[in-house]
Amino acid sequence: MNKSNLDNVKDALDGKYEKKWKRSYYMGSVKEEDKSKREKSLLEKYSREELGLMPLFCPKCSKMMKGKLDKKMWPLHRMCFDCVVKMETKMRAEGTYKEYERNKIEANMKSYLRDAKQQSEEYLKSLEQIEILQNSQGDIEKWELGSEAIEEIKKRHKKQLDEIQSLIDKIEKEK
Questions:
Q1: How many domains does the chain have?
Q2: Please, which residues have CB within 8 angstroms of residue 144's CB and are 6 or more apart in sequence?
Q3: DSSP summary character for residue 60
Q4: Are 118 and 168 in contact (CB under 8 A)?
Q5: Disulfide-capable partner of 97 in 4, 92, 159, 170 (CB 3.0 to 4.6 Å)?
């Protein structure tokens, strides 16, 4: 980090940031003072954790969190990458890492299966709706599946939902 960047960070932390406009690819031009007012009002209502913001410093080791790995580890473990590595190394030494790893994998499997179940249920609900489309000539068309086709699709999805639920139950019973 060069000296001008370091000075800008210090000024921003002190609230003396002089830049009037900031160009952003997504937002266009935004006045810096308007942005800081919005951020301050949000921070008054909610904590940084409630907003999902990563703090500048790790709550465990007080090291500055600025790297890509820290950004990845913060939502998962609420600590910096170095602290996660130390925690996992300590678990390996104590012999508890295998259980920790298995619990993480099971949690990911359950989450994936719940998402698949929810998507399947939403798909079944969307089948019952009639789609109204407008073609290129401007004519309005109503598209709907025949009741036999809907019933066949529902049967297949119900079977999949039952399989997903049995997998979730099996994972929970193994604990």
A1: 3
A2: 130, 131
A3: T
A4: no
A5: 92
Token code pair at residue 57? 């410093």
Indicate the angle between helix axes 147-174 and 97-127, nearest 10 degrees: 160
Q: Give the tens place of pLDDT for each residue, 19-49.
A: 433 443 344 455 566 667 776 776 666 666 6
130: tokens are 């009639």
For residue 55 the two structure tokens come to 């703090």
Tell me, yes or no, whether 139 lies in a domain.
no
| 30 plus 87 within the same structural domain | no
Residue 81: domain span:
57-94
Region at 28 (left for phi over 0; alpha for psi -120 to 50; beta for the rest): left
pLDDT tens digits for range 116-126: 888 888 887 87
Q: Give me 103's structure tokens.
A: 């619990």
Q: Whose structure tokens read 């090291």?
A: 63
CB atoms under 10 Å from CB of 58, counted, come to 21
pTM of the full structure: 0.55
